[in-house]
Amino acid sequence: MRTRRSWPVRLIIMVMMVLALATTSFAVLADDPTEISGTKMIECPDCGLTGGCSVCLGTDAECEACGGTFVCPTCGGEGYIQSPSSSYNTALSLLPPVIAIALALITKEVYSSLFIGILVGGLLYSNFSFEGTLNHVFSGGIVASLSDSYNVGILIFLVILGTMVCLMNKAGGSAAFGRWAKKNIKSRVGAQLASILLGCLIFIDDYFNCLTVGSVMRPITDKHNVSRAKLAYIIDATAAPVCIIAPISSWAAAVSGFAEDGQGLNLFIRAIPYNFYALLTIVMMLGLVLMKVDFGPMAKFEKNAVENGDLFSGSNPYAMMDEEIDDTKGTVMDLVLPIVVLVVCCVIGMIYSGGFFSGENFVDAFSNSDASIGLMLGSAFGLLFALIYYFVRRSMTFKEMMGCIPEGFKAMVPAILILTFAWTLKSMTDSLGAKYFVRDFVRSAQGLQMLLPVIVFVVGCLLAFATGTSWGTFGILIPIVQNVFSMDNPLAIICISACMAGAVCGDHCSPISDTTIMASAGAQCDHVNHVSTQLPYAISCAVIAGISYVVAGALAYFGLPGIIALPVGIVLMLGFLFFVKNARRSA
């Protein structure tokens, strides 16, 4: 086991060290000194590039700070100063994320790994000064991240989302939908398609997906002899892979938090067509159901379910559990209406933040929207509607509704911790000039650019697989990837999407992923059985997605549309399923 686990660690560290130890020789002549290869210059913290005195603002001839010169005494009017860190724009600037990655892979624990990476960043920035390290880690890192208005808006959205999930579950909407579906779904294929559809509709959060789809669809899939392992796969495959391509979701908010200038949502939307793993996972699910084909261990589980009525192919780990209470007061609208209103309110909030009501057209307003403001305002109105709706419906008492607020907050604590540490690690790497070091490397290694998407995808897969978290992978990789190119470069969007796809793929495969564990619990399936039956499907999809990223990288590098790789991947996926089906027939 140790030998098997060590190779992902070695591969990732090797890739990162190649980046870190590469020498650069590309120079850019520009007025901006930060554009020069090997630059040590940073923006002046006192005047913010203006070059003017920040005390008198250039208006006091007797100013004690500038002595009447009206120029910034810190930078002498240049707007730039030399970084105080001796590690700035060197190979050491990548050490914090490298350490965070290595520790996450070894310990399989993301919180301490991210914090140690942050601590190393503080040490390097302060040149190993004890006082300077503490100030930079806490004041310049954690406190600065949590006091940033954009970040706080994202955190508020997560808390409200957790509250709404709690409200919807207590209102009995899930149970009502299950009763309706049981009466209207008549076939085995229909039961699986309904599970996929419900999983895709509950796109606002993967936790909500896992907690809802399993309890709603278990009675329906059991009635049509769908194995619990197959249901667990459908739940897992419609959780993170769907959330990562849904602009209105907690995942979109998390990814948006790592982008600069508040353009995270625009970046997220542009990356959706290149998220090959997520899109191909949906294609694979539909193909498996409609073509009635299964392979690997899943084929045995499905055969036992169809022929023998054995849904577990072994013992049922949940056999001693009490039956769930059927809340007869709940209706289908208790689940559907709050979600629809939440989505509508969030869309309105985002176009509002993008200037739609000030004259911008819908597309431009949505693209230029501020995810923090839009999702925060939209979710607030969605929560208000849900509270009023459930109160009028008498679904629960006012005290019970208020009790959902702290419950929702507690449910989102892990996400808040990961985001806080990830934002802080990003600020550490920024303060060390990591983006300039990686930029110079890429400029000097032009031939490597076309392979960067698949490299990022593989690294993201391995990291998320070992740590069991996608968001921690986002926090480590996206800030680095984002600084390799300017965001108007098509190859940049493909690389960002490859990071997200790799993180979701690794999370999907990982036995220690919280989403994987909750999918097993939601389907009431043995966890080991779920992992073993899902892994061949996820790996097959990952291989085809990797090929698609090679194609997309090559196309974008030579100036061709990289989106051509998506239909290529879909054809490869369908061809693979046809091959498997024919192979099983002839066997």
Automatic annotation (TrEMBL):
UniProt subcellular location: Cell membrane
Principal cellular location given in the protein's record: membrane
Stretch forming the signal peptide: 1-30
Highest taxon listed in the record's lineage: Bacteria
A GO CC term assigned to this protein in UniProt: plasma membrane
Bilayer-crossing regions: 88-106, 113-130, 150-168, 274-293, 335-353, 373-392, 404-425, 445-466, 537-557, 563-580
Membrane topology label: Multi-pass membrane protein
Official protein name in the record: Na+/H+ antiporter NhaC family protein
